[in-house]
Amino acid sequence: MPAERRRQVLVSLGLVAATFAAFGPVLRAGFVNWDDAANLLANWHYRGLGLAQFKWMATTSFGGCYQPLSWLSYDLNYLFWGLNPLAYHLTNLVLHAANAVLFYLVARALFRLGAGEADETRVSIAAAFAALFFAIHPLRVESVAWVTERRDVLSGAFYLGALLFYLRREIKASLACFFLALLAKASGLMLPAVFLILDVYPLRRLSINIREWLSQRCRPVLLEKIPFFILSAVFGVVALAGQRGAGALVPLARENFAARLAQSVFGLAFYPMKTLVPARLSPIYEMPPGLYLPCREVLAGAAAVLALSVLFIWLRKKWPAGLAAWACYLVLIAPLSGIFPVGRQFAADRYSYLPCLACAVLAGAVVLAAMNRLKSAGRKILIAALALVALGLGRLTWSQTEIWRDSEALWSRAIALEPGSDVAWDNLGSALAAQGKAALAADDYRKALLINPNYAKARNNLGDALASLGQAAPALAEYRRALKIDPDFAAAHYNLGLALAAQGKTWQAQAEYERAVQDAPDFAEARVNLGNILAKQGKIAQAEALYEQALAIDPGLAAARQNLFYLRRSARRFDRLSR
């Protein structure tokens, strides 16, 4: 094996080993009650290799994301290992480790293009550090340790493949990888713009003067991007439609343009800051009530972004790599920074997965520049310092990964960082309720409601906890309060129906089950309970249809299968007696 190939293999193995070492606790983790339950544990649609499953994967934006390739990966996990969380976490970790190797190859190609005749050993060291800085940074933990975020690491693999093929001038292969990346998650939409930046530097196929791009010489460079931009536009529309359909996209009436601009400016500075100082990382960064344009945080963020932009522009002739990397970061983070706000958070660690590749390239470029200027002894000291940085990042990542071991640990950490988070208190209560600790769960739901009395989900969950404690009347009251806040809350209608049925108020319970089915057509349990009531009323055909519909939604729902069996057996017995 040639020496250069041997070096690449050894570096790749080292990156994989370091990644597995830093994320070791993830292999002992379970699913968490932060979308994992809804997406994987209670969702039967993705399980199987039949036409129905493939159709669902190809057409759904379940949870607000269009991600057919990610659903297929979950399906393969389920087919081989069922719902064993180890398999799902191991798949995430393997993909992330593969991304570390791919990014090493990308960074190496970038440094070779930019540095010309630079020493291969120095280029490899700089690229290896860039890949390690990306792979074992604590900001990556959310994307790797959270099973729901499989889409980050899977999309990232094809995104890096598209980059690598583009740098090698294999455009068709790059386009195919870009398409697959978008099928896993739409976060890489801005890749065509990144290609244009790379065409300026280090590929030098385009001039930094945009007015020259329409010249005869530059026209082929632009034309080859058309398929990429078409894919980006199509998947961008699909992504926005999916978020809007799931109710996650914040409407302009609720958050005006000034508020979005403030969030966006703050978001641009948030991720570089967390990259440099990876402290107080949380699963949810809720929007501060005072985040507006003239506020101190926004002005500080704007000043930081402006200062860095001015610095890189000033250094563009001496260090064009700096400006190119910074431009790539801004392009990649812009759609995720708050212009299109989703949910209540103003930022998320997972949003940094692709944009902070640019930060890692910058780190590697600084290392390469330093190695080129230092003598042998200085380079050895630098390598020792880089090893210490890597050890520090790995230790922080290990600690952050342990937080994701289960729901209770996750939300206890979130509350320790932000005691005023109603979402965190509610989710901690749900984690305790799943352990049978209804009284402790009720206390946490009440804390969530003290922060936000109009939190319908916490009201409904408090009702569940009170019902488990035998407090029927207070539970009934909480369900009604939840529905007063959100009249279309299907789970609250269902729970209210259960409470009314327990009191013998069958007709009222029936109305609540009907409303639950109306608000959530995929609510299989509500169909079963509604079928039970109709069966007792002698409406056999209607009850049978509801059981069948419930089984079509959830083939593993034992109550639906059992009740349908008894209903049909009783009907056959009645037919025999009638004859």
Account of the protein in words:
With 579 residues, this protein is mainly alpha-helical. The chain folds into 2 domains: 3-245 and 375-403, no CATH class; 419-578, Tetratricopeptide repeat domain (Serine Threonine Protein Phosphatase 5, Tetratricopeptide repeat, Alpha Horseshoe), CATH 1.25.40. Helix content is 70%, strand content 1%. The protein has 27 helices and 2 strands. The protein has helices at 3-22, 36-41, 51-59, 68-81, 85-115, 120-135, 141-145, 150-167, 171-184, 191-200, 219-223, 226-245, 257-276, 296-314, 320-333, 357-373, 376-403, 407-417, 422-434, 438-451, 456-468, 472-485, 490-502, 506-519, 524-536, 540-553, 558-578, and strands spanning 285-286, 345-347. The protein has a two-stranded antiparallel ribbon. The protein is elongated, with a radius of gyration of 27 Å.
Whole-number tally of structural domains: 2
Report helical residue fraction. over 70%
For the secondary structure, the number of strands is 2
Summed over residues and divided by their number, the pLDDT gives a mean of 90
Alpha carbon gap, first and last residue: 84 Å
The DSSP helix count reads 27
Secondary structural class:
mainly alpha
Task: Give unreliable regions as ranges.
Answer: 574-579
Radius of gyration: 27 Å
What is the helix/strand order?
Answer: HHHHHHHHHHHHHEHHEHHHHHHHHHHHH
Strand content: under 5%
Largest sheet: 2 strands, antiparallel
Shape: elongated
Spatial strand order of the main sheet = 1-2
Question: Briefly, what is this?
Answer:
The chain folds into 2 domains: 3-245 and 375-403, no CATH class; 419-578, Tetratricopeptide repeat domain (Serine Threonine Protein Phosphatase 5, Tetratricopeptide repeat). The protein is built from 27 helices and 2 strands.
